[in-house]
Amino acid sequence: MDLSVVVPCYNEERALPRLHAALGGVLPALAPEHEIVVVDDGSADGTLSVARSLAAADPRFRYVALSRNFGKEAALLAGLQRARGDRVAIMDADLQHPPELLGRMLALLDAGHDQVVACRDRRGEPWSRTVPARVFYRLFNRLAEVPMRDGAGDFRVLTRRALQAVLAMPEQHRFTKGLFAWVGFDTAHVPLPHVPRRGGRSQWSWRGLVEHAVDGVTSFHHRPLRFAAHLGAAVLAGAAGCLLAGARPLSAGLLASSGLQLVCLGVLGEYLGRIHVEAKRRPHYVVRETGGGPSALDRGQVALCPVPAEIA
């Protein structure tokens, strides 16, 4: 298998046929031996029925249906574990990731890169999304040990060895964009213009975006814990200075102290909660059904635990 296209879906009943048609217009010329792997993340509409119909009509189309909505990261993992291609592409179903861009990305991959990432230029995006995204990337890159380019998203293509390195990391809280950056390898970037969504609406709520950002910040560094310790030391030093100066701002001091304790406990609790989840070692997802032929997971081509040292 030359190329696998992995598409996580949630309530994409209308978008899925359009995506299938669009991919059918470009993939045969790019990779005669290809497959489309769609993961239905517990959709509440007719996404699964559409996937069944497409799999029955197209032998290159396969689907995985999860037992409930586990989130995009789990759905993406399910698709990547079942991809059989030597090259693997990841894209969304809403056609905001243009299939026509795959040709340029695959050419860069064949030129010697292990990852090719489409980066949004953010022109045409509403400021309500652009500003928080820029703030997150700047904060992440200031704290993280590995930088991540502003606008880098899920739309990318990878070689098999880069994919295996990502799959070797079994953590429960998966911030996949960070994992792709962490594994390294030669990476190229292509600009991704803003493309309006063709029907439907985004499944990301503000709460989900904030939780996703927190996962990214806490998954790749422990500096927030160190910051809490430094903040506590600064408050203690300030209190000592007030006492030496003869001041007695009792009410303000108690309020500041209480707030500081709550902040530090919150940061500590965020990390403890993640340790709790990791310790339970539950599976990332549960599969309801599959269709459209065997997968890499079925054939034993994917390791669900750390792979040999030359890859990990």
How does this model look, in words?
This protein is an alpha/beta fold and 312 residues long. It folds into 2 domains: 212 residues, Spore Coat Polysaccharide Biosynthesis Protein SpsA, Chain A, CATH 3.90.550; 62 residues. The protein has 10 helices and 8 strands. It has an 8-stranded mixed beta sheet with strand order 7-5-6-4-1-2-3-8, with helices on both faces. The chain starts with a strand and ends in a 21-residue tail after the last strand.
Q: Key features?
A:
alpha/beta; Spore Coat Polysaccharide Biosynthesis Protein SpsA, Chain A; 8 strands; disordered C terminus
Topology of this structure?
Layout: E1 3-9, H1 15-30, E2 34-40, H2 47-57, E3 61-66, H3 72-82, E4 87-90, H4 102-110, E5 115-120, H5 127-143, E6 152-159, H6 160-167, H7 176-183, E7 187-192, H8 206-219, H9 223-244, H10 250-280, E8 287-291
Parallel strand pairs: 1-2, 1-4, 2-3, 5-7
Antiparallel strand pairs: 3-8, 4-6, 5-6
Helix pairs in contact: 9-10
Annotation field: number of helices: 10
Sheet with most strands? 8 strands, mixed
The domain count comes to 2
The rounded distance between the terminal residues' Cα atoms is 23 Å
Summarize the structure.
The protein has 312 residues and is of the alpha/beta class. It has helices at residues 15-30, 47-57, 72-82, 102-110, 127-143, 160-167, 176-183, 206-219, 223-244, 250-280; strands at 3-9, 34-40, 61-66, 87-90, 115-120, 152-159, 187-192, 287-291.
